[in-house]
Specification:
Oligomer: single chain
Structural class: alpha+beta
Helix content: 55-70%
Distance between the termini: 39 Å
Radius of gyration: 24 Å
Shape: globular
Number of strands: 16
Largest sheet: 6 strands, antiparallel
């Protein structure tokens, strides 16, 4: 950070904090009250009547206006909203449902801004020499970055992923302000364990704005799939080291068909569904390093090889060997329908607080199982996970974000697979992989790798 930036940082934080406060007041609180028929004036708060349309509860109105607030405040808050959308145990199902709109495509910035960033990152001469052409129309746009097709000087097609202007500075500024906001709240509501939740969020967000880290993630995925016992069912894009900076990465286009474009129920779609699930489960149970955002837009199926191509490796999850063993115990308890082992293995995933009592936690898990007994295939896995996290929160048991990322990845991939093949059995695909993972954990040759 330069001298001028250091001198102006406090002023920037003050202005940004005022901007955040205004957005939450104007769009979050006022918007929610207005949707419920209340209006704030000189004489205070008064009821003026519910607007035309269906009546709605406060949670739904608040969630909808919170999504608007986060969108107005930019990338850090959009990412925060996406995290909260996957944590109904923290915000409630109604709020989480409304926040899921934040996963939609974001309006792209102009190409003139993108080109200015490319010239700044590479230097004007290198940019002119390296690229024959860059498509001015964005291929995709998210809260942090957008992508463009391009041709290298020799005609090689590439995909340029470019971080939007000001994102790095704004994200770091917002995280600093959020840390100051979370600290006192954590003391008032210790049962929510907000400090630990925020620490996980901060770590993941900072990693996602560094494309050198994304390149390192690609390297790690490639190494993992060179292990001698690893199935070669997944591929990852090549990146160009000479066209890599913290804010720009050049990638080879992924071959194959986007799984979202496959015809539901077709032979190809069913094969894609099974291979996608199998690849994610292997990443989780064998490698302990997995793609944490495997939605349909990030997956390509290569019909000729039967492989699944993964793109956008900015958001990943990582498990230590002890994490994998703990999660395997959960899966085995589910498969064996062992109530006591399920409660114990779930409890061991989390970090208990002073108020946590195991007997109360076990009782709540039993009640949840009883609620779903006999429903079989009609059970919503998403609802089950949400209830499980709610039970943990109720008992003051903090579930680390790496496990939440894992569960969310499984849910997203299950949704993709069911969209391709409604009859697919997640348990059927997962069971042999879990069994192999247990066997391999005792294999003396597990450190061997395929040659590059």
């Amino acid at each position: 950070m330069g001298l001028w930036a250091k001198l102006t940082q406090p002023v920037g934080l003050v202005f940004r904090s005022q901007e955040i406060a205004f957005a939450f007041t104007r769009y979050g609180l006022a918007g929610s009250l207005g949707a419920l028929g209340w209006e704030a004036g000189k004489q205070g708060l008064r009821f003026v009547g519910v607007p035309a349309g269906k009546p709605q509860g406060f949670d739904a109105a608040f969630g909808r206006n919170l999504a608007v607030t986060f969108t107005k405040l930019g990338p850090t808050f959009i990412k925060l909203g996406q995290v909260l959308a996957s944590r109904p145990d923290l915000v409630g199902e109604a709020v989480a449902e409304e926040l899921r709109v934040l996963f939609d495509r974001v309006t792209p910035v102009s190409f003139s801004e993108i080109e200015r960033i490319l010239k700044r990152e590479f230097g004007a001469k290198k940019y002119a020499k390296a690229f024959r052409a860059v498509d001015p129309e964005s291929l995709a746009s998210a809260s942090i970055s957008q992508t463009h097709k391009a041709l290298l000087a020799d005609g090689t097609p590439v995909i340029l992923k470019v971080q939007k202007p000001g994102v790095d500075r704004r994200v770091r500024q917002d995280l600093q302000l959020l840390a100051g906001f979370v600290a006192p709240l954590d003391k008032v509501y210790p049962q929510l364990q907000l400090k630990m939740v925020f620490a996980d969020f901060e770590r993941a967000t900072l990693a996602e704005i560094d494309y050198k880290q994304e390149a390192a993630n690609i390297d790690k995925f490639r190494r993992n799939y060179r292990k001698i016992f690893s199935a070669a069912n997944a591929v990852f894009p090549k990146y160009y080291p000479n066209l890599l900076t913290q804010h720009v990465i050049a990638l080879e286009p992924m071959r194959g068909h986007s799984v979202g474009a496959l015809k539901k129920g077709s032979t190809v779609a069913r094969a894609a569904a099974e291979q996608s699930l199998a690849a994610l489960f292997e990443q989780i149970f064998d490698h302990g390093f997995f793609h944490a955002d495997p939605h349909a837009g990030n997956l390509f199926f290569q019909q000729d090889t039967g492989q699944v191509g993964f793109i956008d490796m900015g958001l990943v999850g990582q498990l230590q060997p002890t994490d994998k063993k703990r999660f395997l115990k959960v899966i085995l308890a589910v498969l064996k329908r062992d109530r006591s082992k399920l409660a114990r293995s779930l409890y061991d995933l989390g970090t208990p607080s002073k108020k946590t009592r195991y007997d109360a936690f076990e009782k709540d898990v039993d009640a949840m199982i009883d609620e779903h007994a006999g429903k079989g295939a009609q059970i919503s896995l998403e609802k089950l996970v949400g209830q499980l996290l709610a039970v943990a929160r109720k008992n003051g048991l903090y579930v680390p974000n790496r496990y939440v990322l894992l569960l969310r990845s499984c849910l997203v991939m299950e949704g993709v697979a069911k969209g391709l093949d409604p009859d697919i059995s997640v348990a059927r695909v997962a069971t042999p992989i879990v069994a192999r993972s247990l066997a391999r954990s005792y294999n003396p040759l597990r450190f061997l790798q395929r040659k590059p």
